[in-house]
């Protein structure tokens, strides 16, 4: 992630099977309720590699990978910092 002369950072963008989401509710047991950019509300799982290293709170912008066998569930793969989320909003990637 490098900063360009205009203050813009190169951010991680979603792959073909990932979507942007906003954390709506903390459910406990490493689960959160997210509102995805495709209009669906899913229960997302915080994987073990992120549990103690990256703290996820309500209102955070995350990347999720929906399960292909159960569409109402997903795995969180990335969390954006507040400044990065603001940049995504300015560039029109998320609302």
Care to describe what's here?
- The chain is mainly β.
- It has a domain at about 20-80: OB fold (Dihydrolipoamide Acetyltransferase, E2P).
- It has two helices and five strands, in the order βββαββα.
- It has helices spanning about 50, 80-90, and strands at about 20-30, 30-35, 40-45, 60-65, 75-80.
- A hairpin with a 4-residue loop joins β2 and β3.
- It holds the Pfam family eIF-1a.
- It comes from Halanaeroarchaeum sulfurireducens.
Let me know the average pLDDT.
83
Helix count, DSSP H or I runs of 4 or more residues? 2
So what's the overall shape?
Answer: globular
Based on the structure given, which CATH architecture of the domain at 19-82 is correct? Answer: Beta Barrel
The CATH topology of the domain at 19-82 is OB fold (Dihydrolipoamide Acetyltransferase, E2P)
Radius of gyration: 13 Å
**SSE class:** mainly beta
The helix-strand sequence is: EEEHEEH
Would you identify the regions where 5 or more consecutive residues have pLDDT less than 50?
A: 1-5
Tell me what portion of residues adopts beta-strand conformation: 35-45%
Q: What's the helical proportion of residues?
A: 10-25%
CATH class of the domain at 19-82: Mainly Beta
* CATH superfamily (homologous) name of the domain at 19-82: Nucleic acid-binding proteins
- Please count the beta strands (DSSP E, at least 2 residues each): 5
The separation of the N and C termini measures 22 Å
Strand order across the biggest sheet? 1-2-3-5-4
Largest sheet: 5 strands, mixed, barrel
Family: Belongs to the eIF-1A family.
Organism: Halanaeroarchaeum sulfurireducens
Keywords: Initiation factor, Protein biosynthesis
Function: Seems to be required for maximal rate of protein biosynthesis. Enhances ribosome dissociation into subunits and stabilizes the binding of the initiator Met-tRNA(I) to 40 S ribosomal subunits.
């Amino acid at each position: 992630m490098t900063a360009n002369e205009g203050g813009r950072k190169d951010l991680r963008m979603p792959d073909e099977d990932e979507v942007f989401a906003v954390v709506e509710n903390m459910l406990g047991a490493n689960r959160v309720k997210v509102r995805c950019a495709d209009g669906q509300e899913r229960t997302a799982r915080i994987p073990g590699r992120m549990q103690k290293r990256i703290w996820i709170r309500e209102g955070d912008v995350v990347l999720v990978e929906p399960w292909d066998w159960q569409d109402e569930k997903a795995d969180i793969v990335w969390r954006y910092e507040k400044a990065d989320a603001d940049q995504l909003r300015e560039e029109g990637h998320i609302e």
